[in-house]
Each structure stands twice: as C-alpha cells, then as structure tokens.
Specification:
The structure is a homodimer. With about 725 residues, chain A is mainly β. Chain A has seven helices and 45 strands. Chain A has three domains: about 400 residues, YVTN repeat-like/Quinoprotein amine dehydrogenase (Methylamine Dehydrogenase, Chain H, 7 Propeller), CATH 2.130.10; about 55 residues, ligand-binding face of the semaphorins, domain 2; about 100 residues, Immunoglobulin-like. Chains A, B: This is Semaphorin-4D.
C-alpha cells in the first residue's frame, strides 16, 4: 500500500527531530603513542575502579581488587604505597559453595574508598560476599583490622551497583543490603543515628546506584546540608510493553534523625523526583543514568549537576549529557506536588498527582529556621501526620528538567561511561564548561559547548586494550590539571589539554580548545595558566578564526617520503611557501616537470547527511608542491593528512585524503601550489535525502577507491612511457 | 564515581540483547546501471503512489498526481492508456485561499484506486481539498464524471494517512473525515448499509492508517468475512515522558449492518488489539507501523501478515519485520479479554484488564452459525447490552505476538518504507518467504530467513535519484515475477531475481537465492521455474556449500588494466589458472620479475563487532598473477574487487580490496598465484569488545590507507632505483 511522501517526511522529521544535531566526530584523535600519558598498573592486580584524589597531599589513592595503592598525583606511575587485602582461601571456598566464581566474584573488590580523617581512609570491600569495612592508616599504610560488618555500606556482589559519600565522618551509601541483591537500601552508618530507607517499592524499585554527594548550605541560611543520590530504577508511574527505567535524583537531609515512632531509624527526609534528559520533541529519550558530576565553581551561584545518560530502548550506541541547576531540583522537592498511588479496579495501581491537602511541616523537608520556629527542632519531633505522609509519598510529581530544556550533548555510535567537567576561563574571560567523557572502548572525548553547537575538541585513546573506562576523576589544580581514568587493567593519567601538539598559531586557534593559547614569544601553543610573560600577546579565538594569527614565514615543506598532518589556514593560494621557489627548478637540476591536476572532480558523490566520506587529492608535481584544501571557499577547520614522496627527477608525488561529514552539500577544492604554477581541482559533494544506508556509503567509498587507483594507473602509465623512452635510449 | 565493569557489561548486554543479530549488509549491491530495470515516468507527472495490478489483464494501473495510467504489466515502460484528472484553476485558487499551497497541496492526489468491476475502476482524489470519487471506464479509459463526495473515502490533505480496500463492490476506508484531519474514521461506503466508527478516543486516537484487506472465510465454516485494518495510534494504555505510539490491528465484520438504536449506522463489530514487534528482552521496541503485506499461499493453512515497523524512540535508522499468524489475531478478538477505562482520583483514567462479566452474544463478534442459532440473525438484532459493551470496550487486553515471539528481521542504519513477500519453493521443495523491502533511499533489499539467521541476498538501487519508495506491489506469476515500486518520480519494475548475473556455479550457489539454480546444460545461473530440460541436473544449495558444483575449467585471467569482481571458489591454490604459465616468461620476453608478497600482515587491526573494514592485497608480480582470498582457511563467500595493470617489463600490478564485517576474530589470507611461484600473506583481524566507535573504525581505515600508500611508496622507490640505473646508463 502506498506511503505518503509527505507523511513519511513528517514521520522522519519527527523521528529525527526538527533540529537533529548529533555531536560530530572529534576533530582530532590522539593515538595512544602520540601523546604523553602516564600509567599505573600493578602486575596481577585488576579492577582499578575506586579512585580518591587528595590534592592537598598530592596523592591519588587507588582501590583495586584485593589491593589499595597510593601513587603520586602528579605522576601516577610513581607508586608510593601499597597494601593488600586478600581473601583467605577458606573464605573463597565458602563463597564458591554458594555458587559463586572462585576466580573472580569471590575475591575482594574495593567498593568504598573515602577519607575518614587526615591520616586515615575508610575502606570497604565485597570480601568474597561477606562485605567488610576497615580503616586504612595512611601513615603506616596498613589496615587496622577492625573487620566491621559492611552490610548496607558495601554490596555483597561485585556486579551490584553502589555509591557512597563520607559526610562529617559518617558514611552515606546506596547499595544492596543482602546477598541476593534484592533489597536495595540508602543508609547512613552512624554511631548515634543510623538511618535507612524503607524496604518498599515506592521508595526504591530495583535501583542501580550511580552517584552520591553532599551539598553544603551556608550556616547563615539556617538550612541543613543535603545529601543527593542519583540512580536509575524501574518506573512505577510509567508503563509500556516492557518495564520502563526512569532516572532519579533523591535527597535526604544531613540533620535527619529519623522519627520517634513512625519512621523510627528511617529517613524522614527521603524524597525523589524524575530526571528528564530528552529532545524536546520526544524523538530521543535517555532514561538510563550512567554517571553524574557535580560542578562547583566560585562564579556559579549554585552547583550544577552534569549527568551522563544512555537510552533504555533501541540503544544502538547513543549517549547524552544533560546539565541541571541544583535549584531546579530543590524547587521540585521544596515546593512541588507529590505523587500518590491510587488503587484502580481493586488490583491495579496508578500513580497520579496528589492534589489534596498536605500536612505541615512539609513532609520530607529539612529542619530549617522556619521549622524550628514552629517548635519542631528535630525530625524526632515531627508530627505523625507528616511522617506518615512522607512514608507513603516519597515520589514528587514534578520532573527535574535540564538547563535550556535540552541535552548539552547527544552523540551517536558511542557508549559513554563516565563524565567529569572542568569550568575554565578562556583568554577573553569567558567561562567554558569542558566536558570530559570516557567511552566503553577506553577512549576519552573532550567537548565544549560553543554558541549553538557542541564542539568535540579531541579524542584520546587512553587504554590500548580498548577496555571500558570504569571511573574518571578530575584534578583541576591550575597548571597541573589532569584527568585520571581507571579501567580493569590500570589507571591512566592524561593532561587536560595537549596544547603543545598544535604546531602553528593556526592549528592552535583551529583547535578551539579553551585551555590553549598561542604564545608568539614562545612561538608555541601553550596551556593558558602556564603562559608566562606578556599575557597581552597571547592569541586565542574560540570561533576558530585564524585571522587573529600574525603572518608567518612559510612552513618548510614536509621532508620527502614522509607523512604529516596538513592543517592549512586561510592563506592566500597566491603565496606559495616553499623555500625552493626562487630557483624555479627542482633539486636535481632537471627542468621542472609539469604539474598535474588532482582530478578531484572525478570524485563527485552523494553522501548521507552527516555521513563520513573521503576525498583524495593526488597531484604529482615539482618537489615543492604544497596542498591546500578548501571547503565552500573557506579553509578547512580539520587537519588533512598528506603523504609526500620525492622522486629523482625533481618531481614529488603527494597523496592527501580529506575526511569530512556534512549536513548539506558543499564544494571542496584542492589547490596545489608549486614552482611550476598553481592548479586547482574542485568537486561538489551532495547530501542524499535523509540518512542513506551504509551500503550507499560504502559504494561511494569504493568509487573513491577506484578513482584513486585510476589515478595511480594513469601515473604509472606516464611513468611507463618515460621508462620506455629511457630504455629505448639505453644501449 | 566508579562504574561496575560487570554492571556495565550487564547493562550493555541488556542494551544490546543477549543475541543482538542485526541483519548484515546485503551480500551484493546492484547499481542502477548494472541490472535490467524497466521504468515508467510521464514528464510533468509526479507522485506515482497508487499501484493496482491486474494479473489477468496483464495491466498495471498507476494513480499519480492528477493522472491515471495503464501500462503493460510485463513491461511498465509501455504505456497503454492515460487519463488526466486535473484540478481547475478556480478550485486551486479556492484551495489556496484556505492557506494551502497552490503548487503542491492544491492539486489532485489519487488516493483510492480499486477495482469496481471487470470494466471499471473506482478512483478518488484529494482534488484540492475537496475529496471526490469517480468511476474510470477501462474500455474508453475515461472518467464517467460522477463527482461523488469523497468524504470518508479519501483524505482532504495529501499529507494525511489513508488506506482502503474494495470488498464485494463496497469500499472500506480508513482515513480522516474532515479538512483539518482531526476526525479519523474507518467507514464503509455502501448504498444500503453505510457504517462508520464512533468519533471517540477509545475507538481511534490520532491514527496513521497503513493497510487494509479482507480475509475471506469459507462458506462451509458458516462464518463471516472480516476486514482488517492496520494503523499506528496514540496509546491510551501506556504512558511515558512523551505520548507513546502503539501499532494496532483492528477488524470489522463484512456482514455488519450496525445496530438498530445503539450504534445505529456504526460498526457493531469494531475491535482492535496491540501489535507487538520487539526483541524478547525489551531492548528494541518497534512501535510505529510502516506497511503490511498479507501472504496467502496454498500451503499456508491461514494467511500470514508481514508487518514492517520502525521505532518511535531513539530511531537513528532502525527497521524491523514481524510476521503474524492470522489465527493469533483472531484468538485475541474471539476469546481474549477486553480492556476497560477506569477513572482514577476523579480526573485520571487508566486502562486495565476487564475481569467482569461479558454480555452475550460476545460483543464485537461476527454473526456466525452459533449466533444465528441463538436467534440473532443480524447485527440489527443484537441486544443493547452487547452493543453498549462493544461501544465502550473496543480495545482488547491481549497483544498479538509475532511468530516465534521475535522479529523476522531487524536492520540498523536503514529506514524501510514498504514490504512485499513472495513464498517460493527452492529446488529441494523447501518453502521460503522471500521479503522484498524498499528503503527511503530508493533501494530494494531482498531477504530470506535461513535457519537461525536472516540472509540479505541483494540490494538493488531502483531509483537513481535516491527518492523514497512510496509503494511496492508484487506479481509472483510463475516465471514472470516482478516487483513494482512507485516513488515521487516514477515507477520501476524489477525482476524477482537476477540469476543471470551470477556467472559461475559457485556464484550461483553462494548467492543463496531460492529463485536461482545452476543449470549445467545451459552453463548458466537461471531462475528456477524457467529451468528447462533436465530438472534433475539443476544445482542449488541454500547453505552456500559450493562443493555441490562440478569441477570446472579455470576462469581466464582478467584482461590487463581492468577492474573486475573476483569471486573465487574453493579452488586449490596449487593449480594456477593462467594460460601463460606454460611459457614461464612474460609477454614482453624479459625474464620473469620476482613476485612480491602482498604485505597483508601490516594490516592487522581491531574492528568493531560486525563493523565493516577493508583489507588490501597489493602484490606486484608477473603478468599472470591471480589473487585468491581466504578467510579462516575457507574461500570467501563475497566477491572481491581486483584491479590489474600490466606493466611493460612483464610485471603486473594488482590491487585488490576485501570488505567484510565479522562477529568475531578471523584470519584472512591473500594468496597470489603466478608463473613466478605462489606467495601467501596472512593477517588476523580481531574484534574489539562490544561496539567500537566509528572513530576507532576510521582510525583503522586510515591506517589501512597508510599501509597501501606505504606499499606504493616502496614500489615507487624500487622504480626510482630502476629509473636511476636506467638514466645513468643513458648518454
């Protein structure tokens, strides 16, 4: 039966969104060996999944499987201390009897690594399904052997989710309470006031815990500190063919003491709300939370949560980052309506907005000056009505929406695992939130929001074995900033930027990296805080406009037979840059050989919208040939590889391939400058309607291949002719 | 905060499914110019979206915008008749006044093209937002000018959805009833008993109609014929952050006369149910219906519906096909429970299963022998209780699940638009349902289910302009089978198979196309029904085992400087195939030049699971070099392009690139056979964990490029040396 073109287009538009802006591929990829990375790996030790940074001490503590290490935070390859916490053979056997794997699951996975005091850490491990906690003395770097029961602080099963934060010496944890993992709990371990959640579906419904942190209030405000928990759980308020996951932000008040009778030793301040991260038109819905980072900065009135998501449904490789103002969340908790469970037809429940009267003091609110003024000085004083209400209504009706009501970043074909964010100032003082997101293939992407788009500055391959990054920690100490990544196999330390890799002012500007500026005095691209001397001379342009760069002496041609990255700026093609130009002849003394055009025009193609394609520019010519790529009349932003080979007759053979992905048709030009003149070849690349299949794309790919091979054939034929004439000359 | 490796893996497993089997890329792609396609296009006429095939008359009727054509069904390029139904200028102006586009929307889009009798068609068009119907006399090929009001039979707006089927001279339609498109309707146009749906959300909730057809019951069964409708609508029973779409199968009974008082002139037999198409683990949910095809065959007890779906959420290019037994649907309607709307907290509704008593006769059931025996001879006799019940309970509780409870085909990176299915018998008598699915880029994919996988036999680029295929029709007349595809720009006719394109027995077997067999007597790959002569000698193996092919004389080497498709079979590398081998010397008389290995080993790489990669085999050698690719010790199934260039010194330069996508690591070998001996180079391609990013893939891509360029450099250096020695010899 027929399909409406209009209807289909409309459907496709809805499917793709009126403004589908998936983040592009990273502009530069740093292969493992290209950049300076420091690594830590202890032979025989795996799962470097707990990282704790002490910037004051300059130490990075690493909780791995059956071991804790202290390494130099400036250089993680320098191990300072180590201590082992192995599971005894007996314990492993006992664990294996319960049906667990002796080689893996029945080992001791460190799950809690928190500061206890200036000289001790609080450490918990799964300990062969017998979760145990201890104190680690930092002076002797030994465990005290306290053997505390870890139930509720640490999961039994290394496969189960967990999160924890130490607040004023007390540990707040979200994890599973039992061996099977069927009883989730958010609890506070405290000598005088331990608290936990109710074991009830409305409170926690098969949660996967992701993150927890404390938000301090200023004492002047008279308000209580809050501890926020982030997790994904099964939704009670939504329904589809299958159970739907829903991301939650939940909070409790630090001063909570539980109730006197109702909610005795239970949270009286536990409230949770939906965290929404989706495109406004509903075409992309990200409802599985992967990680959260709390961005605090002096110039931010309130902290901003950066949350990393994946979709539950139809996830063929999709990730998104949404940012939330803390005040948005607090509004929902402090002023929003509650949800209520209503019974339907005796046996069904539906969660709907509760519009009825709400007891006072407000259920779930922290004890603040207002509450104290009403004579409720502690949660133990709260009236039963309030306590009963919050026990039955932990879920708020309102949703916590992201800043600007849309994601900060949406990327296809990637599974991001962790996120950290550094707020930094560019040269002109503008603040940029630089997002570092790690992938499940061991890479790190660095992205920044620019005007209306997201710019993926670079990708760095941290782990050569492509193992997923399990944890990410940021040290943004000025001038010494690093990102630390933990995986199954080790810890890698990377600088916040690789400014030095940009060899020219143009490259430095085109990178559009807020950390990097061009220093004319040093004639180098350097990290902004480190730039010494005259700050007025520094050059940076976050729009990538290289006209801010001073005119320079020409770059020397690449040495023969070498490969390089050609990152041309908007230099006028009329000023070739070779030092040999004056002579007008090649180095071997023969008359200059004619320049052949690059035959770019043979590569006209249709490409999918935003589908990657290659263009090849293969001009043989004199030794001093230099290629310049242009797109729609402007110099390219990306770097284009060039291979140059010198030939004996003064000719050079250059092969350059350009990779791009475009939303709409564009005209590309490859200009070749040389002493024999300048030649330009151009081609128009059109964008096929909607998204073409990869099959289409690969057909184009092969066509491009054939074009190159054809070009090579022609060259070989011309060489054959030269050969034949030469051999005819020979005796 | 740390991420569990286990948790992440579990999450990824859930996300990707324990057995994520996306259909692979088509094995062969036929470019537009490679194959025999017939096309019809009338200059100035667009939107060839209504196709009606009359196999008896051998005619294909085409309803386009403002025109109806009759073309030869055996060759659509032969126009037989044409008639125009243009909108008058006055009508267009009037339509434009209502805010519509004079150039496009205000024209006459043919939406109904149905057989009325042996000599007439029933035709309706939007007619500048004044839907009108008429009879087309097939003898004179002129419209009678009846100017019937098309409301309810044809939409006003060409962008609105529609479907219709003619049953015993009466038209059953699903479309919108009004100008705005806000009132959906399923209706029967009838002189004596016109019927329509209630205008109520429980009956139809913003539906997008896709397909309708009649299922006849045998008179002996005493049952009524049913008319089924397929559409996607907004779900009342599900809820998420955004409104959820849900595919529906609905049915009415042909004998329905409406009720006497309640449901007067309304359907008394309208029932609908959810159509589910998703992976069993819920990771992929396809809830937008695109097209339906009813497969009828003598060997099928009951018809099978093949339905084509796309996902509403996170659709970055995903399509699925699910097949349904008609009996499954009928069970849900005839024996299943109903859903009931329950009011919650005064203002909300929730749809739940209705468990209470159900009136008799069963609400919504057709009048059958049992009902008649109870004295209800017509719907006009049905008791009010039954009628009131079905008026309030049109939605069944049960879901209609696909055969085997899973999709027949799931494909990434493609948007399928239409489907037809042909049930055919292979040589050994096994029946195969061959699925023809068209894409929104003007291509046609042919797929068949083999054992536990889906085999994408081939892709054919039907439309050079990459326009979406709007409609697909199948003629499976034995020996003359064709697929007809309509798009905005024309109609293309393609054969069901391109058997003749497979030049060898091996290629014919490797194609695994149920239509194609190898005929030794004809020494050709031919379509099965056409194979004449000795059917016992015919060869076919749907597992692709080419050992069924007899041993053959060697294929001649490709001519010099040509490109070809090399599809080697499992020939032993020890028997080279060149006719020049006996001489032991190249054609130019020089001593044979040594064979260089292909340096395949430099291309070791990690690839994403099922991610496409290339391997290049670039061996220079004597003129008679012949390449053979092997994978894991077996000859390849796919065809590998080879470019060969002859050089004056008796050498040849060959360039061959292999494209593949693998689920797990494999070892590839490129063997070069020649008079100078045989050389093999091999490489192992490993599969990176989970899905790697395209970035990773492109890095590998560039590495492979560099390897080729490196190889070329080495060759050029050796030629340079030869040049230098030659030029030194020169005077």
């Amino acid at each position: 039966m027929p399909v409406l073109a209009g209807g289909l287009l409309a459907a496709l538009t809805v499917a793709f969104g009126t403004a589908v802006a998936f983040a592009p591929k990273p502009r530069i990829t740093w292969e493992h060996r290209e950049v300076q990375l420091l690594r830590f790996h202890e032979p025989g030790i795996y799962n470097y999944s707990a990282l704790l940074l002490s910037e004051d001490q300059g130490t990075l503590y690493i909780g791995a499987r059956e071991a804790v290490f202290a390494v130099n935070a400036l250089n993680v390859s320098e191990k300072q201390h180590e201590v082992y916490w192995r599971v005894s053979e007996g314990k492993r056997a006992k664990c294996a009897e319960k049906g667990k794997s002796k080689q893996t699951e029945c080992l001791n996975y460190i799950r809690v690594l928190q500061p206890l005091s200036a000289t001790a850490l609080y450490v918990c491990g799964t300990n062969a399904f017998q979760p145990t906690c201890d104190h680690l003395n930092l002076t002797s770097f030994t465990f005290l052997g306290r053997n505390e029961d870890g139930k509720g602080r640490c999961p039994f099963d290394p496969a189960h989710s967990y999160t924890s934060v130490m607040v004023d010496g007390e540990l707040y944890t979200g994890t599973s309470y039992n061996f099977l993992g069927s009883e989730p709990v958010i609890s506070r371990s405290s000598a005088h006031s331990p608290l936990r959640t109710e074991y009830a579906i409305p409170w926690l419904n098969e949660p996967k815990f992701v993150f927890a942190d404390v938000i301090r209030k200023s004492p002047a405000e008279g308000e209580d500190d809050r501890v926020y928990f982030f997790f994904t759980e099964v939704s009670v308020e939504y329904e589809f063919v299958f159970r739907l996951q829903i991301p939650r932000i939940a909070r409790v008040c630090k001063g909570d003491q539980g109730g006197l009778r109702t909610l005795q030793k239970k949270w009286t301040s536990f409230l949770k709300a939906k965290l929404i991260c989706s495109r406004r038109d509903g075409s992309l819905v990200f409802n599985v939370l992967r990680d959260v980072f709390v961005l605090r900065a002096p110039d931010l009135k309130a902290p901003v949560f950066y949350a990393l998501f994946a979709p539950q449904l139809n996830n063929v490789g999709l990730s998104a980052v949404c940012a939330y103002d803390l005040s948005t969340a607090e509004d929902v908790f402090s002023h929003g309506k509650y949800m209520q469970s209503a019974t339907v037809e005796h046996s069904h429940t539906k969660w709907v907005r509760y519009n009825g009267p709400v007891p006072r003091p407000r259920p779930g609110a922290c004890i603040d000056s207002e509450t104290r003024a009403a004579n409720y000085t502690s949660s133990l004083n709260l009236p039963d009505k309030t306590l009963q209400f919050v026990k039955d209504h932990p879920l708020m009706d309102g949703s916590v929406m992201p800043v600007d009501n849309r994601p900060r970043l949406v990327k296809k074909d990637v599974n991001y695992t962790q996120i950290v964010v550094d707020r930094t100032r560019a040269l002109d003082g503008t603040a940029y939130d630089v997002m570092f997101v790690s992938t499940d293939q061991g890479a790190l992407h660095k992205a920044v929001s620019l005007e209306n788009t997201v710019h993926l500055i670079e990708e760095t391959q941290l782990f050569q074995d492509f193992e997923p990054v399990q944890t990410l920690v940021l040290s943004s100490k000025k001038g010494w900033g690093s990102v630390y990544a933990g995986s199954r196999s080790g810890v890698v330390q990377a600088p916040l930027a690789f400014c030095g890799k940009h060899g020219s002012c143009e490259d430095c500007v085109l990178a559009r990296d807020p950390y990097c500026v061009w220093s004319p005095s040093a004639a180098a691209c350097v990290a902004l805080p480190q730039a010494e001397g005259d700050a007025r001379g520094l050059i940076q342009d976050m729009r990538g406009d290289t006209s801010v760069c001073p005119a320079w002496p020409p770059k020397p041609s690449p040495p023969p037979g070498s490969s390089s990255l050609s990152c041309p700026g908007p230099a006028a093609p009329s000023s070739p840059r070779s030092p040999w130009l004056a002579s007008g002849a090649g180095p071997s003394g023969r008359s200059p050989v004619a320049l052949l055009p690059p035959f770019l025009r043979d590569q006209a193609q249709h490409v999918p919208r935003m589908g990657t394609f290659h263009l090849f520019c293969v001009p043989p010519g004199p030794a001093d040939i230099r290629l310049i790529w242009e797109k729609d009349g402007r110099a390219l932003e990306t770097c284009v590889p060039v291979q140059t080979h010198m030939l004996p007759d003064g000719r050079a053979h250059a092969l350059s391939w350009l990779r791009d992905a475009i939303p709409e048709g564009a005209e590309y030009r490859c200009s070749v400058l040389s002493s024999a003149g300048n030649v330009t070849s151009k081609v128009r690349v059109a964008v096929a309607r909607a998204e073409a299949t990869h099959q289409e794309h690969w057909s184009r790919e092969l066509s491009a291949w054939r074009a190159v091979v054809g070009e090579h054939s022609r060259m070989m034929q011309s060489w054959r002719q030269a050969w034949e004439s030469c051999s005819q000359d020979a005796p």
